[in-house]
Structures are given as C-alpha cells and as structure tokens.
Amino acid sequence: MKVLDLLEEIEEIVDTASGFPLTGKIMVDAQELLEIVREIRLELPDEIQQAQWIKNERERIIAEAKKEYEAVIADAKRQAEALVENDDITVKAKLRADELMRVTEETAKQLKMSTYDYVDSILYNFQEKMEHLNALYFGDMFGTIEKTFNDINETLASNRNEIKEMAYRTESGQDEILPSENEEDPDSERD
Predict the structure, then answer these.
(1) What is the pTM of this model?
(2) What HEC string does the chain produce?
(3) What is the tens place of the pLDDT at every residue in 154-191?
(4) 27, 84, 118, 147: most buried by Cβ count inside 10 Å?
C-alpha cells in the first residue's frame, strides 16, 4: 500500500533527523516532507475507491439476496397453485408456502445481517487505521491532512451508522424486502 510506504518514509525522516538538545525538537527538510505529503494526497483517492467498492459490493449482495428471495417466493406460489385442487392439499400447500416464506425471509434477513457485519468490520478496520495514522504521523504539523482524515472518518462513521440502522431495521422487522400487494411499486410510476 503506497500510502503506508510514504508514511514509513516520513517516520524514517523524523527518526533520523538532527535534534536540538534539550528541546525535543528536530530539524527536517520541509521540501522533502511536503513532497511526501503531496504523494499521499495523490494516493488517498485509491483508498476512497476501495471504500466505494465495498459499498457497491454490499448493494450487489443485497440485490442478489432479493432476487433469490423473489425466486423462492415465485416457486412457492407456483407449487401452491398446483395443489389447490383438493382442500386437504390446499391446506397443506398453504402451510408449506407459509413455511417457505418464513424460511426465505429468515434467510434473506441473515444474508443482510451478514453483509452488514462484513461491511461494518471493513469500515471499522479502515477507520481504525485512519485514526492510527492520523495520531502517529500528522498531529498539529499537518492540519490540512488531519482535516482530510477527519472528513474520511466522519464518512466512515456515517456509513457504519447507516449499516447499523439498516441492520437494526432488518433485525426488528421494520425493513420490508418486497412491497405488499396493496402497495404500488414506486418504480412503476417512472416507467
């Protein structure tokens, strides 16, 4: 990871710099440090793209889970309609369809929860790394970079909160996967 290499280079410059006795201060080449900081700025968009990829992957996984859910529901409806001919079979089919619906909803919920946990752990690890890098290398000397890290951390925290809110809604049953038959599909008005 290029950013980590550049940060190690800054650390090496600081470790090998000449010091002023009794002050704890060191003398470093400002141009050299500023050049490394510029390179870090150029590399940060790659890190942000990785976070975007994680978000896109989360959306893809949720979309796949929804498609699987819809396929299972459609299959359950087809099976139920085929068994309607006999009352006893109809009752059994309804029970089976209800069971399939429950299992499917539980599976979709578990898939969502797993996705939320996975994305949250990646965001949390990335957030921890950013906070660690900020604390170790920048401090007061690089106010501009500190602001950038803080903005990224706020975005990550916001994303984590969004994931946790979605997980909470899913866990508490407030998150509807499919609109009910009485509700209109909001996408249908756009067609």
Answers:
(1) 0.31
(2) CHHHHHHHHHHHHHHHCEECCCCCCEECCHHHHHHHHHHHHHHHHHHHHHHHHHHHHHHHHHHHHHHHHHHHHHHHHHHHHHCCCCHHHHHHHHHHHHHHHHHHHHHHHHHHHHHHHHHHHHHHHHHHHHHHHHHHHHCCCCHHHHHHHHHHHHHHHHHHHHHHHHHHHHHCCCCCCCCCCCCCCHHHHCC
(3) 999 999 999 999 988 888 877 655 444 445 555 555 54
(4) 118
Residue boundaries of the structural domains of the chain: 2-174
- Give me the residue label for tokens 């299959």: 75
Q: How many CA atoms lie within 13 A of 61 on its CB side?
A: 19
CA angle at 62 for the pair 56 and 66, rounded to the nearest 5°: 140
